[in-house]
Amino acid sequence: MRAVIMKSPGDVRVEDRPDPVIEEPTDAVIRIVAACVCGSDLWPYRGADDVHDRWMGHEYVGVVEQVGDAVTTVSPGDFVVGSFVISDGTCPICTAGYQSRCVNAEFVDGGIGTQAQYARIPYADGTLVATPSYPDEDLIPSLLAASDVFGTGWFAADAAQAGPGKTVVVVGDGAVGLMGVLAAKQMEAERIIAMSRHADRQALAREFGATDIVEERGKEGLATIRELTDGLGAHSVIEAVGTQESMMMALRACRPGGHIGFVGVSHDVEIPGGRLFMGLVHLHGGPAPVRRYLPELIRLVMERKVDPGRVFTTQLPLEEAASAYAAMDRREEIKVLLWP
Ligand SMILES: [Zn+2]
Questions:
Q1: CA 97–ligand 1 middle distance (angstroms)
Q2: What percent of the chain has pLDDT over 90?
Q3: What is the domain-level CATH number for residue 162?
Q4: What confidence tens digit (pLDDT) does each residue in 97-134 have?
Q5: Cα(292) to centroid(ligand 1), Å
Q6: Do the Cβ atoms of 149 and 312 come closer than 8 Å?
Q7: Which domain covers residue 322, as residue numbers?
């Protein structure tokens, strides 16, 4: 099969790799129908993470080709959406709803890699969810989004306790931040303030439900948020970047007693104890337990209640993966879908 490999920072290629086979009775082998490049793939691409010959891709939808003897919830021919983290679905962490830190968790990047034509999915019952019927072609991007960005934005909004009567600030206008806007809207937040300096992303944020856009960053941005929230800060803040600057913005933009959902992959973030102590906020975040939300997100997409697939601003053949990475790196595209 063909699969995307990152040889070193900035060096993305499509190479041959042996077709995956069933190795454990809990495995499924799926034919990837659609995959994509994640904002988090840009960290190694830009050299912020160490990378050497890594099989790429952790977002995927596909059709089950084969299952091991112990798999009971998905069958060959099923269209499935999977989480970006493998989970067994049975351990105490999974059953509590935190599948992304399952005792048997494995990130799909690296060993598996779904920017490819096929993938072996361990713990298929705990990781994959079948759609009720084979989806219409136009729903595939939205189902693919549920695999990570939509699920992650949803978790962030849930962790931030977005809901009726709440003002939600979204820090970060990448795909996950935009999905946080959409999720907050679905959760009936009253006001959704998106922080963005890019016209294309502002437009999409508005489409997904943002009521206000704040273009300024730093002190000016914070002052504007204070103005919009009667000087109190927001009830709910979604942090979707993962830098020191974005986390400090989230802490400062949140009112005492408020909730922060942080899902930007943390890079050298250090929270000063004094700020944390005096903030009096709830902090909840980390790798999103997307598997917990997949049944609900699949239902919303299949019933055409939401269109998270709008974050894919372009679609390319898998063979052109290098162009997809480059375009996202240059911020020319928000997110690129890859057709194997
Ligand atoms: Zn588990």
A1: 9
A2: 96
A3: 3.40.50.720
A4: 999 999 999 999 989 999 999 999 999 999 999 999 99
A5: 12
A6: no
A7: 2-148+289-339
